[in-house]
Amino acid sequence: MKALLKNSGGVTKEVKVGFSWTTFFFGFFPALFRGDLKWAAILVVIELVLGSFTLGIGAWVSGVVFSFVYNKIYIKELIEKGYQPANEESRRLLESKQIISKTA
Questions:
Q1: Does residue 104 fall inside a structural domain?
Q2: pTM, 2 dp
Q3: In a domain, 103, yes or no
Q4: Distance between CA atoms of 15 and 13, rounded to whole angstroms?
Q5: Where would you tag: which of 4, 29, 61, 64 has the fewest CB atoms within 10 A of its CB?
Q6: Please, what is the average pLDDT of the chain?
Q7: For residue 90, which of 103, 81, 99 has the smallest C-alpha distance?
């Protein structure tokens, strides 16, 4: 499922809602390519720290966990930066996934 977000300057972004398969397979690279440098750095640090203590297994586990939450984090940060659902369908989708409240 995808939602369309738009800011006041007219820039639109199509964002995936739900499980992040790209984060699952590629770790921090999707965040890096989206320009989300903060979360890319956080993911790298977590994967390095957990991976070094567990012979790489911890890095895999953190990747699986972040696959479930990363898209939601990314959407919430875009909303904090001024993006809003571009249409009613996107608004309903984000409300159903509890990313935005029904009054927003």
A1: no
A2: 0.88
A3: no
A4: 6
A5: 64
A6: 93
A7: 99
Closest CA to 84 of 47, 76, 73, 31: 76
The total of structural domains in the chain comes to: 1
Domain assignment of residue 11, given as a range: 2-96
> 47 with 65: CB under 8 angstroms?
no
Is there a domain that residue 102 lies in?
no
- Position 102 confidence tier, pLDDT thresholds 50, 70, 90: confident
Angle at which helices 57-80 and 37-53 pack, to 10 degrees? 160
Q: Which of 14, 5, 19 is nearest to 104 (CA)?
A: 5
66 closest CA partner among 79, 50, 55, 89: 50
92 within a domain of the structure (yes/no): yes
